[in-house]
Amino acid sequence: MPDLKRYFIVEDSGATKGSTTHFDLWVGGKGFSKSASDKCMNSFTGNHKVILHPAAGKPITLGPLTGANGCVI
Question: In which domain, by residue range, is 57 found?
């Protein structure tokens, strides 16, 4: 997902509703409050570009998405 500068592994596609494909992303949050994780999830919930089989060398950010101030993006 280029907007998030992250690679994700699709482990389950059973959550698709109708003809729209959607992904539930793990945002981490160990050591932070549930509200921090919720704030992170809510900040990027929506439509995003997804690249299947991206070329090598794309910029990425490592680690969980949840941080002390919401998301680490």
Answer: 34-71
